[in-house]
Amino acid sequence: MLFKKYEKNPILEPVLGSPWEGHAVCNPGVIEDGGKVYMLYRASGETDVYRIYFGLAVSDDGYTFKRVSEKPNYTGMHGFDSGCVEDPRIVKMEDGYFYVTYACRVTPFTAFVQGDHAAFPEGAPKSMTENFTRTGLMRTKDFKSYENLGAITPDDIDDRDVVIFPEKVNGKYVMFRRPAHYVGAQYGTEKPGIWMAFSDDMKTWKDDVLIARPEVDWDCCKIGASTPPIKTEQGWLVMYHGVDEKRIYRQGLMMLDLHEPTKIIARPKGFILEPTEKWEITGVEHDVVFAVGNIILGENMLVYYGGADKVIGVATAKFKDVVEYVMQAK
User: Fold this and answer.
1) How many other C-beta atoms can be found within 10 angstroms of the C-beta atom of residue 208?
2) The dihedral formed by the CA atoms of 65, 84, 238 and 266, expressed in degrees to the nearest 10
3) Phi, psi of 113 (to 5 degrees)
């Protein structure tokens, strides 16, 4: 396998007895800056309601992380994200801010299923009445205080796996999204796929284009963007996840054109990460490796992922080997 899983995985586990991260920690957004590696991770401590928060951990080497606080680093508080916040993806833009996209709901999932929530107002959107997932955007300079920029996906469809490119392309901000309802002949795909949208201000996104759809057995049910794209001389290196008929989550790679990112120039048929360890196979959700963060440290590419929605692992490969592997599929 191209990526080697770290021998001391998992690198972060739940804290026994914690009211907010005693049940699970997973799906971490990760970024390196100024010699420090920052990890914003998904955490939950309640199994009856299953409210989800963000915690923060910091590392000097990318492998050993220390939690920053005994309290959540971020909790939803803006109506559209007051039920849960999940799966942060982090990029640093030229204005010096770290921008974080994250999935969210109005009502905690279990509370919604049980009907334990306030009555919805007349004419409420489906994001409330059906508890669809939306995507929020926030920014920070220090991972201590956040400026919430609001929801950036519609309130009438389920839309997640939103990842923003770390720089503008052709004068536009670019993002991946995975609208679950964009399926059927009119959308050009029978299963949820990866779409791209563009913006002048990172708030209003338009001109959606279908980038990739499920193609092979291991990603036959749905695919979605995983980690922020990495700019290379050959193109934008993109990691994505695929789900098969047994609901096994794996990770794959593709390369997009630098100047026309809607164009795939290489997409290997095989996957590069799959559940093999006990803690990836059994957990809150079984058979899951779900990558959300990647960084380049020296000559290595480090990929951070949730294992079975329960713990966090990291896998590494020589960056040049990763690029060569993808481009062989050109």
Assistant:
1) 14
2) 140
3) -60, -40
3-state secondary structure of 278: helix
Give the closest residue to 138 by CA, choosing from 207, 91, 172, 200. 91
Classify 291 in phi/psi space as left (phi over 0), alpha (psi -120 to 50) or beta: beta
Q: Encoding tokens for residue 272? A: 């590069």
| Residue of 330 and 262 predicted with greater confidence | 262
Residue 113: its H or E element: helix 109-114
Q: What is the pTM of this model?
A: 0.97
Q: CA 208 → CA 61, 115, 176, distances in Å?
A: 38, 34, 9
Give, rounded to a whole angstrom, the gap between the first and last alpha carbons of the chain.
Answer: 20
**Separation of CA 156 from chain center:** 21
How large is the C-alpha radius of gyration of the chain?
A: 18
Please state, in angstroms and rounded to a whole number, the distance separating the CA atoms of residues 260 and 280: 36
What is the pLDDT of the chain when averaged over all its residues?
A: 96
Beta-bridge partner residues of 47: none
CA distance 205 to 13: 36
What is the C-alpha separation between 252 and 75, in angstroms, rounded? 31
pLDDT in tens, 189-224: 999 999 999 999 999 999 999 999 999 999 999 999
Taking alpha carbons only, the member of 158, 161, 112, 163 closest to residue 133 is 158
Beta-sheet strands, E only, within 23-119? 24-33, 36-44, 52-59, 65-67, 84-92, 98-105
pLDDT digits (tens, 9 = 90+) for 99-138: 999 999 999 888 888 887 777 888 898 999 999 999 999 9
Entry field: residues in the chain: 330
Output the six-digit token pair for 122: 């007349």
Cα-to-chain-centroid distance, residue 292? 4
